[in-house]
Amino acid sequence: MKVCLYFEGEKMISTSGIGRALKHQKAALASQGIEYTLDPDDDYDILHINTVGPSSLGVIAKARKRGLKVIYHAHSTEEDFRNSFVLSNQIAPVFKKLLITCYSKADYIITPTPYSKSLLEGYEGINVPIVDISNGIDLDRFHYNKEKVKAFRRYFSLKDEDKVVISVGLYFERKGLLDFMEVAKQLPQYKFIWFGYTPLYTVPKKIREVIEEDHPHNVILPGYVKGPVIEGAYAGADCFFFPSKEETEGIVVLEALASSQQVLLRDIPVYDPWLLHGVNCYKGKTVADFVDLTEKIVEGKVDNLTENGRFTAESRSIECIGEKLREVYEKVLAL
């Protein structure tokens, strides 16, 4: 069995969740001894395609002409396309039609969560079997590491007494950026760091303004950061606060859980049933909830759920995901 992992615009998506999904898929297949290629002109048995667009459709057409099986990894939905780029809400219905066109060309669809599976099953025009498999997490990379924590605190010149709340994401309204800023404003005693970057010309005016000039004094915006600093931030912060309003999974949430970090999320359907309030994370619905829970988490006034969170991440290890992908590949080859 040989699989072609295809990602259109690989360089452009390298810093996004889909970009990390590519790394995870390569590692997952390697863990199972499954041969793979990234070249769609190579010889292979299954096309495992991860992106939508003209090149992706062209690769599918070539694979079909060769009589090969096609699996579509559905990372995107209309719902998580909204409230992102300029005009994303206006374009969303057209984007949904593109998704349906692409996804319906597969023999099988993989999507990260039961929630995203339920969304796709509700799209008229998709009549392909769908299975939910997490994007997985590299447990060796994300865990508590004293030297990485030191690198994080040194990078931001943090004092011993500084309490830090972090988040990771693109500069999208959907990611809850505005609520993050409001919570920071109401908790000036803490430092808030938002890791991530999006070209400002691509996002709406209200997002540009808050990034460029209108964010609270205690918010730090370092842009895209990788390596020991971000890994140390996951482990060394006092809270990971991710108020995203829509996700298909949220790889950054898995990274925080794997790092044994206290996690605060918006209470949205994508986290059901695998993330439970008061069990392996905390959840809120309003800014008032987030302010209250952030302070309680940072000050140690609520239970420490990091052990349960790490256990949740372990159940989505690269090896576990590799086993599930193998099962799907074998099923598709037998069709």
Structure, explained:
This protein has 335 residues and is α/β, with parallel strands linked by helices. The protein folds into 2 domains: 2-136 and 317-333, Glycogen Phosphorylase B (Rossmann fold, 3-Layer(aba) Sandwich); 146-314, Rossmann fold (3-Layer(aba) Sandwich). 41% of the residues lie in helices and 15% in strands. It is built from 13 helices and 12 strands. Strands 2-1-3-4-5-6 form a 6-stranded parallel β-sheet, sandwiched between helices. Strands 9-8-7-10-11-12 form a 6-stranded parallel β-sheet, sandwiched between helices. Helix 10 packs across helix 12. The mean pLDDT is 95. Residues 156-308 form the Glycosyl transferase family domain. Pfam families: Glyco_transf_4, Glycos_transf_1.
